[in-house]
Specification:
Strand order of the largest sheet: 1-2-3
CATH architecture of the largest domain: Orthogonal Bundle
Order of helices and strands: HHHHHHHHHEEEHEEHHHHH
CATH topology of the largest domain: hpI Integrase, Chain A
Distance between the termini: 75 Å
CATH superfamily of the largest domain: Intergrase catalytic core
Strand content: 5-15%
CATH class of the largest domain: Mainly Alpha
Number of domains: 2
Largest sheet: 3 strands, antiparallel
Length: 321
């Protein structure tokens, strides 16, 4: 653009006076800028391309939806082209969002991470020179140790469950440590000799294992089924004349309602923390707990574990005192 502009001005120099030259230069610059702006790819198209890249990378549907949701909110609020967004825009947006919605620093850092991933993509594709999010710092998080279920709490939930299906769900969650989405995707045929191969985050396969008690409740539940659905767990009510596979939301509601009945906070993901904690406290190597839960990083597994203080004291006497 600069070369063309210089050549035109050089050619017209002897034919125009200074005022005419200035007007010509301003007109050409304006036209070039308009043409350049029209040729730019819109923010929405760039975001669509980014989401397509995440689909290609085999990210989970939930993760992809979150990438899309967080960046759509951000771009709509900032209302600038991605090339013009800077560090101050990002910090102002995150600070105002936290103040208005009252979210935790953990949630805020997650938002920052999803936005940063989009700008990393733009940098990699040479749309922008550098990712402005890297110039911002994550906020300090208050580390809260989340609790796991006690054995008595699991027993109470099982006894409170109104039907054999819900009892089976509790046992499968409590012994396999599967994610609720993974639970909903298990088929009856997936279970072979107390083991199932499931597909977790990132489309990665892993083995999970059913205890004798879990198999007992699963088989007892399957004995009540009169349908041909391949899903391990189905809704009791028909949809369009058919029994449909249970969804994440329906399982979460079942566990939440059971918790309310016995006055505890209960949700399916808490069973993963329970399985990890039980394994560590009974001496299961952390690497094996990691493999069981399908974590890519061992640090994630450590966050899940609530180590028994008595075990720490015994280990101290054995190895240190």
């Amino acid at each position: 653009m600069n070369i063309i502009l210089k050549n035109v001005l050089k050619t017209m120099k002897d034919s125009l006076n200074s005022e005419q030259m200035k007007l010509l230069e301003e007109t050409l610059l304006k036209e070039f800028e308009m043409q350049y702006s029209e040729n730019k790819i819109s923010n929405n198209k760039l975001l669509d391309d980014f989401i397509s890249s995440k689909v290609y990378e085999n990210c989970s549907e939930q993760t992809i939806a979150q990438y899309k949701r967080e960046n759509e909110k951000f771009l709509a609020h900032i209302n600038k082209r991605v090339e013009d967004i800077d560090k101050r825009d990002i910090e102002r947006y995150l600070a105002e969002y936290r103040e208005y919605h009252g979210i935790s620093n953990v949630t805020l850092n997650n938002m920052r991470r999803f936005i940063s991933a989009f700008f990393n993509y733009l940098e990699f594709e040479d749309i922008i020179k550098c990712n402005p999010v890297r110039k911002t710092k994550p906020v300090r998080e208050l580390k809260v140790v989340k609790s796991s279920f006690g054995e008595l709490e699991v027993e109470k939930m099982r006894e409170t469950a109104m039907n054999i299906r819900d009892k089976a769900i509790i046992e499968v969650l409590n012994t396999t440590g599967v994610r609720v989405s993974e639970l909903c995707n298990i088929n009856i045929s997936d279970i072979q000799q107390g083991t199932a191969v499931i597909r977790g985050k990132g489309n990665k396969e892993r083995h999970v294992y059913f205890s004798d008690k879990a198999l007992y409740y699963v088989n007892k539940y399957l004995g009540t089924r009169k349908d041909n659905n391949e899903a391990l767990f189905i809704n009791y009510n028909k949809t369009d004349g058919l029994y449909k596979r249970m969804t994440k939301n329906s399982v979460e509601k079942i566990i939440k309602d059971l918790g309310l009945k016995i006055n505890i906070k209960a949700y399916p993901h808490k069973f993963r923390r329970t399985v990890a904690t039980r394994g560590i406290n009974k001496g299961m190597p952390i690497q094996e707990v990691q493999a069981l839960l399908g974590h890519s990083k061992i640090e994630t597994t450590m966050i899940y574990c609530n180590v028994d203080v008595n075990n720490i004291q015994m280990s101290h006497k054995k190895y240190i005192a």
